[in-house]
Design a protein that fits this description.
It is built from no helices and 11 strands. With 114 residues, it is mainly beta.
Length: 114
């Protein structure tokens, strides 16, 4: 079993930055894919960014503004979000895929005001 706990969300003005953290309950060396998703009110959950076997992938809407990284020593995954826009407002959820076993965190709210 893997537990994920997100933190770092909040209220920020458009153009600002936030860094989200996802603390994973055990070593992530056996978890090849970690990532971030988001879900806005009334919308489907969508992928934002992930790292799989060392390769990073981003949604087109966040390319050039968001950066995903992982700290293997401390079992943490980060999402640095810069130049935030009101349309980035959503609950952001951390995801870990351990070769088919998929785990989710509870999410952290990000609100971007115009």
């Amino acid at each position: 079993q893997v537990h994920l706990v997100e933190s770092g969300g909040g209220l920020v003005q458009a153009g600002g930055s936030l860094r989200l953290s996802c603390a994973i309950s055990r070593s992530t060396f056996s978890i090849p894919t970690v990532g971030w998703y988001r879900q806005a009110p009334g919308k489907q959950r969508e992928p934002v960014a992930n790292i799989s076997a060392g390769v990073t992938t981003y949604a087109d809407s966040v390319k050039g503004r968001f950066t995903i990284s992982r700290d293997y020593d401390n079992n943490v995954v980060y999402l640095q979000m810069d130049t935030l826009k009101p349309e980035d407002t959503a609950v952001y959820l951390c995801n870990a895929d351990e070769s088919g076993w998929v785990y989710w965190g509870q999410g952290t709210q990000v609100t971007v005001s115009s």
